Amino acid sequence: MPAPDLGHDTGEPSRLPFFVGVRSSDRVIRTAARVVVLGALLCGTLAAQSRFASFTEVRDVLGSLADILPAALKVPEASAAARAWTGWAERQDRTIRDRLQRGDEETIVNWLLFGTTFTTLPRVPLDTPGAPSDQNARTQLIAARTAALVNALASPGQDERRLFARALFARQGYSMATSAERTKLATRLSRLVESVLAERADISREIQAIRQAASVSEQFAAQSKLFRDRGLSLDTSFRPSFALEQALLQLRAKRLLESGEIRDVAVIGPGLDFTDKTSGYDFYPQQTLQPFALIDSLIRTGLVKDAASVRLTTLDISPRVNDHLARSRKRASAGEAYRLRLPLDLGIKWKPQVLEYWKVAGDRIGTTTAPTRATVAGANVDVRTVVVRPAVTLQIAPLDLNVVLQRSDSRRFDLVVATNVFVYYDVLEQVLALANVRAMLNPGGFLLSNNALLELPASKMRSLGYITVEYSETRDDGDHIVWYQAQ
Predict the structure, then answer these.
(1) DSSP 3-state assignment of 119?
(2) pLDDT confidence of residue 281
(3) Comma-separated ranges of CATH 3.40.50.150 domains in the chain
(4) Banded pLDDT at 277 (limits 50, 70, 90)
(5) Residues 134/70, Cβ–Cβ less than 8 Å
(6) Whether the predicted pLDDT of 220 surpasses 70
(7) What is the DSSP secondary structure assignment for residue 117, as one 8-state letter?
(8) Are 81 and 211 in contact (CB under 8 A)?
(9) Would you call 363 helix, strand, or coil by DSSP?
């Protein structure tokens, strides 16, 4: 996610300009909730469970936001409050989960625009000038790549990306058995491309408006909910993992974290690489990076002795992510290693620290290969492969949990990380999520996030500092990692 220009300071609470006016006083609202327990996807481990937060647990948080509550939660009668909360929470859970399909469709559009495994056509240059000739050429290129993708989906073979996209469209009623049906799918893809490009243009305009805000505090707060109306995307990169390692180093330097204090950690929304929004790499199998990178960083920073010293739980609503991790655990139990690919676009002017991180990432959890050079759609790319030891994979367990509305009583974490997650939610959803994270943290535990979250007394979470990290010389290619501590 793009970060506003806040400089390079790593401040204490009094030096956090973007938190001015973020905290609020409490008010009380009366509501209640029914507990709903969901099954976990832990594949051979002690099963953790998720449940909906009860009203007793969120009452004070909701009361603090009475002015912005949806109409369904503005119930004056205390006797009806429980039913109102229960109904709203369950409907909202379905609404949030439904956004996964929109995110998957956007991912397929990114694949259509940038992917290289289904066509030799050049990638679509989205930043070309607006001259009619340029637009015409881009339109023709998109049409040609659309036809190529439809043909690829008609003959998917064993390619996991093609099989996934084909299955998604089959569920929507699209077949590829005849030429007419393939034409129908191509029309559907064209409309999706138009929708995604229009949405990106809207977001670009919103970013420009955000930059006119009076303070960097307001800019960061606005950007922290920028994708609140978008589909939930799963794609990731190594960038946030580098930023998290820098934050961990800061926490240790400030003695907020000590060696041996971290035993249980969680990653909210670990992601699953399909094709990212910038480079569009699709030449390696799908992977989840952040859980492995976090364990690697905890070892490198000296906060844990080795991978066996820490348990990691992923919290995600995506069946694709949870199934990928469950299958990876199953293969690891049979002795199979997990392979991470770390591509580095050599056309980007990376910051020196980022390059140094890329060279060593993963070396504490497996064996690494020397970089290999690849040419992808005219771009030079270095790729490192990390062969992760099976024992490390077995330390990672997935749990189906909607952090906005659910929590788990089965685990208490010392550290929770969430990058490019809360940006998909509005203020109410973010505050509810923060309360649920607090419920799953041990006292004094930390949440690390690259979003500014509204802090309420009822949430019992406080920001203690942040670090600004730049990845490259490209404008807005950076993050602010904020550390929130459970009170």
Answers:
(1) coil
(2) 83
(3) 1-97+226-487
(4) low
(5) no
(6) no
(7) S
(8) no
(9) coil
pLDDT in tens, 413-429: 999 999 999 988 999 99
Helix (H, G, I), strand (E, B) or coil at 131: coil
Residue 122 and residue 141 in contact, taking contact as beta carbons nearer than 8 Å: yes
Question: What phi, psi does 313 have (nearest 5°)?
Answer: -115, 130
Closest CA to 296 of 235, 258, 241: 241
pLDDT tens track for 337-349: 999 999 998 989 9
DSSP labels, 277-307: SSS---SS-----HHHHHHHHHHHTTSSSSG
Q: Which of 441, 48, 419 is nearest to 262 (CA)?
A: 441
Q: Decide: 349 and 474 in contact? Cβ < 8 Å.
A: yes
The residue to which tokens 């180093």 are assigned: 249
| pLDDT value at residue 235 | 79
Q: What pLDDT shows up at residue 81?
A: 83
Pairing of strands 379-388, 338-345: antiparallel
* Domain 1-97+226-487, second-level architecture: 3-Layer(aba) Sandwich (3.40)
Neighbours of 173 (CB within 10 A): 10
Place of tokens 């509005």: 426
How is residue 148 written in tokens? 């190529």
Please report, as a single letter, which amino acid is at residue 459.
Answer: S
Q: 174: closest CA among 160, 185, 183, 190?
A: 185
Phi, psi of 316 (to 5 degrees): -155, 150
Q: Tell me the C-alpha distance between 392 and 311, whole Å.
A: 9
* pTM for the model: 0.85
Instruction: Please determine, for residue 212, whether its predicted confidence score (pLDDT) is greater than 90.
Output: no
What's the DSSP call for residue 405? T
Beta-ladder partners of 472:
350
Q: Which two three-digit tokens encode residue 81?
A: 């409050």
- Cα 362–Cα 445–Cα 7 angle in degrees, nearest 5: 70
Residues 29-55 pLDDT 10s: 222 232 333 333 334 444 579 999 999
Structure tokens at 426: 């509005």
Angle at 228 between CA 33 and CA 445, to 5 degrees: 60
Q: What is the DSSP string of 13-47?
A: GGG-GGGTTT--------------EE----SSSPP
Altogether, the residues listed in the chain come to a count of 487
Angle between helices 78-114 and 55-64 (to 10 degrees): 80
The residue whose two tokens read 């119930």 is: 75
Which stretch, 28-37, 69-78, 286-295, has highest mean pLDDT? 286-295
> Is the pLDDT at 247 greater than 90, yes or no?
yes
Three-state SS at 274:
coil
> Collapsing DSSP states into helix, strand and coil, what is residue 161?
helix
